[in-house]
Amino acid sequence: MNEEQRSLLLKSSSRFPPPQGVKLSYGTAGFRADASILESTVYRVGILAALRSLKTKSVIGVMITASHNKVSDNGVKIADPSGGMLTQNWEPFADALANASDPGDLVRSRVEALPQVTSQAKKHTLGGTYMFLTTPVGNDTDLPASRLA
């Protein structure tokens, strides 16, 4: 990751601080929680989707979901290139991103923790060569899901 990328990531992630005292875990349904505490998680899942797209050189989808329970029950999950769930070996990385304590922790110990991905990012953004990532985002039509999108 170059300094410009690092700076942009630090600045943008500071706009979405994680909820205090909450630890989220990625499971079959992705991350599930009350919509009021998911803003930083949705942002960080976007980062995860971009990194996954770099790694797989494929389109990765993000879905913001609602629930049949109360309206504030929401979630966010990733669809891998096959259309299926995020591969299980990336779930611990998803947890680490979602639970990073601050922007510095997010960048330093989480995003840069995948050297094979960040080296690809560097390769594709230096010297005028850019790789465009495609990450479609879908959401349910309830108000909390629409706000999170």
TrEMBL record:
Q: Which GO terms describe its molecular function?
A: intramolecular phosphotransferase activity
Q: Which Pfam families match?
A: PGM_PMM_I
Q: Which SUPFAM superfamilies match?
A: Phosphoglucomutase, first 3 domains
Q: Where is the Alpha-D-phosphohexomutase alpha/beta/alpha domain?
A: 56-89
What InterPro entries does the database record attribute to this sequence?
A-D-PHexomutase_a/b/a-I, A-D-PHexomutase_a/b/a-I/II/III
For the biological process aspect of GO, one term held by this record is: carbohydrate metabolic process
Q: Give the range the annotation lists for the signal sequence.
A: none
Say which family it is in: Belongs to the phosphohexose mutase family.
Q: Protein name, please?
A: Phosphoacetylglucosamine mutase
